[in-house]
Amino acid sequence: xxxxxxxxxxxxxxxxxxxxxxxxxxxxxxxxxxxxxxxxxxxxxxxxxxxxxxxxxxxxxxxxxxxxxxxxxxxxxxxxxxxxxxxxxxxxxxxxxxxxxxxxxxxxxxxxxxxxxxxxxxxxxxxxxxxxxxxxxxxxxxxxxxxxxxxxxxxxxxxxxxxxxxxxxxxxxxxxxxxxxxxxxxxxxxxxxxxxxxxxxxxxxxxxxxxxxxxxxxxxxxxxxxxxxxxxxxxxxxxxxxxxxxxxxxxxxxxxxxxxxxxxxxxxxxxxxxxxxxxxxxxxxxxxxxxxxxxxxxxxxxxxxxxxxxxxxxxxxxxxxxxxxxxxxxxxxxxxxxxxxxxxxxxxxxxxxxxxxxxxxxxxxxxxxxxxxxxxxxxxxxxxxxxxxxxxxxxxxxxxxxxxxxxxxxxxxxxxxxxxxxxxxxxxxxxxxxxxxxxxxxxxxxxxxxxxxxxxxxxxxxxxxxxxxxxxxxxxxxxxxxxxxxxxxxxxxxxxxxxxxxxxxxxxxxxxxxxxxxxxxxxxxxxxxxxxxxxxxxxxxxxxxxxxxxxxxxxxxxxxxxxxxxxxxxxxxxxxxxxxxxxxxxxxxxxxxxxxxxxxxxxxxxxxxxxxxxxxxxxxxxxxxxxxxxxxxxxxxxxxxxxxxxxxxxxxxxxxxxxxxxxxxxxxxxxxxxxxxxxxxxxxxxxxxxxxxxxxxxxxxx
Length: 702
Fold this sequence. Notes:
Shape: elongated
Mean pLDDT: 89
Domain Penicillin-binding protein transpeptidase: 359-652
Low-confidence stretches: 1-53
Protein name: Transglycosylase domain-containing protein
CATH class of the domain at 4-272: Mainly Alpha
Pfam families: Transgly, Transpeptidase
CATH superfamily of the domain at 4-272: Biosynthetic peptidoglycan transglycosylase-like
CATH architecture of the domain at 4-272: Orthogonal Bundle
Domain Glycosyl transferase family: 70-256
Largest sheet: 5 strands, mixed
Radius of gyration: 35 Å
Strand order of the largest sheet: 2-1-3-11-12
InterPro entries: Beta-lactam/transpept-like, Glyco_trans_51, Glycosyltr_51/Transpeptidase, Lysozyme-like_dom_sf, PBP_transglycosylase, PCN-bd_Tpept
Number of helices: 22
Distance between the termini: 121 Å
């Protein structure tokens, strides 16, 4: 039999509970001055100054990077969340969350006075029982999200850390919320913001994470399990505490049955069902890219470097990870798949040889980047083949902002078409015969450069080697045209000797050729640079050749089609700034000449369909360390590179070497680089058809 003191204690607890409830109600509806001087007055006064409405905008959401067909490349998020409308949520989760968290959700006006009284009595008697409605929980979550977004995460209060004033604040805001929004809007907002553990925020992310289905497809047992998780995502963790989850799920099912939300047969079948996890861990950023991680990194840098997306990089990063952007890009996923297969086949990333391979394509006349593939693994961990630099890109953009690019590679003879272009631009004929046997250029040779100084020599008197060609059989007079398509260094130098180096540099600059490290114009202060001793990025080369293919129209490369915010805001993206940069007749002369490379020149053995207008130029540097094929049709321009990305020197010479089981006395630009270029160009032929190139005027043909 209970003692007299025990009975009086319970009575006193009840009276105290009632008094406390009165204080709460008074604090809720009376002005702060009515309780001035109490310990809660400051909290209440601070609360009364808050607005009576809340921001019902979508919570922080992931940004999605899309290919040009709408397929997902990657997502960026600080919180894995994909807000969906209520009609995209299974009715089982809507009913299950109400049944277990707030059975009177559709009856109360934001706070549940019955629940409050019950919780106060339980607390006074030494127990514990929650009293927060779904509306209050929603308010609490929005307050937390707001603080986190403002960088004030240290001010977040949880559980017992909250004062009575904090509780009153949440209660009044819940009442205000109910006066402005429907129950459906509140439930939708709550299910999109609440945490389900393991990085999953909101019901759609949770459904994908644990069951690999959208929120709309959740079955009754799945929905009941997730409804139970929100009470304590750690204790009811589906991955580590499945027994706890099943017990809580069955409790949810019991509540749903008691409240008439499901039938007895539905209840019994769900209780007997296994938990049925189909875990699909989320991955974000370029590390989790479904395709083209290096292109993804390029897109990320474009966002982080552009003031249109925020005042500084920190603001832009916040927008990217929290702003729910939809980023439509120019990448062609079908062609990217081919490009990736080709570079992977050239040499596996982890092969002990540790050579690099790259393919990058742009569309002439638009500047759209269509492919960007390389054979390394996008991973910062130290391991063979792991590499974070982007082979295709220069180190910096035109504004000096970082691009995470490798900075390019020596381009070898792929530089020669720009010298040839200036030859034609100067009014000379490609049929002009020059002496290919000239190999000595003495110190002090009078190279013409009207905007600078060009130096350098091939002078045996100074102990220098005479100018070499790639093979010993072409030291004889020939046309400038033959010198180009057979890639004869001595003819290139003979033509340059009749030109102004300043104008050669202007021609290369007009096509967009820049130093891959400095983003400055390609330097012709040294005669050695006539045959490509400077580093240029593959994207730069693909785009420069696209200028020839587009009848001399140069477009800046672009990777972004559009960027849209969650409320329909359109952010400005860089334009291609297409302009006539080279005389169309000069461009026609270059494409005419370079078609010969594939039929009777240095790229005759490249495996590519030659039944339509297509041109290319090969390039190989000293020691065959860097090898290239760059070329285009009117529909697509591609730069292909194979070589060393870890340095130059004896270790990286590609001579007397076996690659993928095939022995090479010397790897030429037409070999591995040419092979992967040809396969990609053939794959692109139907989607990006080749229109015939215009013929140059007769005066150029001679």
